[in-house]
Amino acid sequence: MTSSIASISLPARLDLITRLVSRDEVPLHxxxxxxxxxxxxxxxxxxxxxxxxxxxDHSGNPxxxxxEELEKQRTITLETLTSDLRIFNDYxxxxxxxxxxxxxxxxxxxxxxxxxxxxxxxxxxxxxxxxDRKR
Length: 135
Known about the structure:
Elements: H1 10-21, H2 25-51, H3 64-95, H4 115-131
Helix pairs in contact: 2-3, 2-4
Pfam families: DUF3232
């Protein structure tokens, strides 16, 4: 992968990569799966952060079962997201020399091993997509 375009914005990075892989079903499928994982993780993160603050019983605490389930889902979706990101980037690196350094992940290469960095990247990716949406 080329490092000369490593610092491009997330929307531009996504657009460039989408155009690069647009004629190959394998990376298109991997990209769609990755973007689905980003959305799922974001959903469970928002659910955990908002629903756990809503009292569910007379003591004012959310139910322990709900807390455990939301945290479990958030962990699972982050692990899936990290795995899907690595798989997509590995495929991109092997088959598309013109892809930006780091693939879709725009952080330092070693940061892809840090779940918090991947979660932050996913949030930034969704915010960038939302900001650049067609209105």
